[in-house]
Amino acid sequence: MLGVTDLPTYLAAVALIVLLPGPNSLYVLSVASRRGVGQGYRAAFGVFTGDTVLMVLTAVGAGALLKASPVLFGVVKVLGAGYLGWLAVGMLRAAWGMWRARLTRDAEPEAAGAEAAGAAERPYRRALLVSLLNPKAILFLLSFFVQFVDPGYAHPALSFLLLGTVSQLVSLVYLSTLIFTGTRLSAAFRRRKRLSAGATSAAGVIFLGFAAKLATS
Questions:
Q1: What is the sign, positive or negative, of the torsion defined by CA atoms of 29, 35, 38, 42?
Q2: Where would you find the membrane-spanning parts of this chain (predicted)?
Q3: What are phi and psi of 4, to 5 degrees?
Q4: Residues 6+ apart with CB under 8 A from 147
Q5: CA gap 77, 175 in Å, rounded
Q6: Taking a C-beta distance cutoff of 8 angstroms, is the pair 7, 1 a contact?
Q7: Which of 36, 38, 126, 217 has its CA 20 to 30 A from that of 74?
Q8: Residue 44: its pLDDT value, please?
Q9: Which helix (H) or strand (E) holds 153?
Q10: Could you give the 3-state DSSP secondary structure of residue 203?
């Protein structure tokens, strides 16, 4: 089928990969839980855009370029780790503000501050940058996709297009599930300030872990 071999195995592998927690999916869940379905989908479409760009770059050989140039790979890796770290610091600062507001019982300034922070967040742009500043994604896509492309097929770009489209559809289903789960969580977060502050703190720590892992890999 358009030069794709063993499509059922590819579908199973994509489903497992998409289900693994990563910075993209956790950021979409975080946005949906704090700001609702609409903003959650803004973040999700940032992920889709970034992933599409990476898939196109993979198809034209950018993955091979990164693999052949350790300096270029290192630069992009440092940028990606730095951006993830910056997101983590922002989450931890927001969590600290929640803890302080809870201790002083000053809920109204907290709400105003959260609203101002949300207005400046720009979920689409942030999710797009998180996706693009991950050179390992290109290397992964390159090594993963080629396993399911028939080397004798005359139009391998169509094979990459089909594999990428299937991957994006699976990702859409998964992120939609996270978005609607996140909006249900938001009601609990609004009622329980300790839960909200704890979840934001945990997300910040996890993003720090992603940054450290990317920087040291």
A1: negative
A2: 12-32, 44-66, 72-96, 127-148, 160-183, 195-215
A3: -95, 130
A4: none
A5: 25
A6: yes
A7: 126
A8: 93
A9: none
A10: helix
Write the pLDDT tens digit of every residue in 171-210: 899 899 888 887 776 665 555 666 666 766 777 787 788 7
What gap in Å lies between CA 100 and CA 106, rounded to an integer? 9
User: Which ranges in the chain belong to alpha helices (H)?
Assistant: 7-19, 23-35, 37-59, 62-68, 70-104, 107-119, 123-132, 135-145, 156-191, 193-216
In whole angstroms, give the CA distance from residue 6 to residue 148.
Answer: 7
pLDDT for the residue numbered 130: 84
Retrieve residue 195's tokens: 């839960």
DSSP code per residue over 22-82:
-HHHHHHHHHHHHH-HHHHHHHHHHHHHHHHHHHHHHHTTHHHHHHH-HHHHHHHHHHHHH
Q: How far apart are CA 111 and CA 143, in angstroms?
A: 46
Tell me what pLDDT residue 113 has.
Answer: 47
Tokens of 74: 């290192």
Q: What are the pLDDT digits (tens) for 207-217?
A: 788 778 767 76
The pTM of the full predicted model, rounded to 2 decimals, is: 0.69
The Cα–Cα gap between 129 and 26 comes to: 14
Structure tokens at 18: 């998409």
- Residue 133 token pair: 């500043």
- Which residues of the chain are under the pLDDT cut of 50? 106-117
**Nearest in space to 115 (alpha carbons), one of 129, 145, 94, 143:** 94
* Lookup result for tokens 């730095």: 82
d(CA 94, CA 136): 29
